[in-house]
Amino acid sequence: MTKTTSTTPLISAHNLTCIREERVLFDELSFNINSGDIVQIEGPNGAGKTSLLRILAGLSRPYAGDVKYLNDNITHSRDEFNEALLYIGHLAGVKSELTAEENLNFNLRISGYDNHNTSDILAKVNLSGFEEALAGHLSAGQHRRTALARMWHTNCKIWILDEPFTAIDKKGVEELEKLFLTHVSNGGCVIMTTHQDMSLITEPRLRKIKLDYRFI
Ligand SMILES: Nc1ncnc2c1ncn2[C@@H]1O[C@H](COP(=O)(O)OP(=O)(O)OP(=O)(O)O)[C@@H](O)[C@H]1O
């Protein structure tokens, strides 16, 4: 890996261009995200927020440009980057035919965590008593909480979250905001999209990257 210092960005975008169906969603987009940053990707429906998050997470390739993790292109440092990355997309990786507990276990196991107390973690997202409920039978907010529960048990520094607050009630949003603040105070970063206002994390604490789509 490239030599890093305390000021090396955790993740950086270099001249990113994304084109979908002949539409330029963004071009020559560059930014650094450091330890301690909470960044909101902002823009109207269809502006390219999810597309940008997926490119930052290495799940899709940009038309041009690079994403670096600790100054190394993520295509070169794939394993190290994946170890540092927690990505929760808006489909959220929750299987309807599994229980809340089975979903959490599955998501933690594929991230390499074997030793955990699922009941304790589910209690943190207010799902005590719903451990054995099929995810397909949970309410929209409980379903989302099942997806987000893994954030309470991770060592990943980089959190990339697509619409984490969707269907979450006001108190739940505040609990998530507190979790984000704790995470970044421990050296992590959060990159997310949301159409919802936050009460604890606001500008200037919150950095915003604005996308506006246009046509070629
Ligand atoms: N794989 C793809 N192939 C073709 N078009 C795509 C693909 N992925 C996204 N798009 C298009 O790119 C545009 C941006 O989509 P994206 O999901 O990134 O927007 P968004 O800003 O996250 O929107 P929203 O706020 O509605 O979630 C949309 O018009 C979408 O149809």
Automatic annotation (TrEMBL):
Annotated ranges, domain ABC transporter: 11-213
Family matches, as Gene3D superfamilies: P-loop containing nucleotide triphosphate hydrolases
Domain of life: Bacteria
A single GO molecular function term of this UniProt record: ATP hydrolysis activity
GO terms classed as biological process: cytochrome complex assembly
InterPro entries: AAA+_ATPase, ABC_transporter-like_ATP-bd, ABC_transptr_haem_export_CcmA, P-loop_NTPase
Organism from which the protein derives: Shewanella aestuarii
Keyword Membrane applies: yes
PANTHER family recorded: ABC TRANSPORTER I FAMILY MEMBER 1
One Pfam family recorded for the sequence: ABC_tran
Record keywords, A-Z: ATP-binding, Cytochrome c-type biogenesis, Membrane, Nucleotide-binding, Translocase, Transport
Protein name: Cytochrome c biogenesis heme-transporting ATPase CcmA
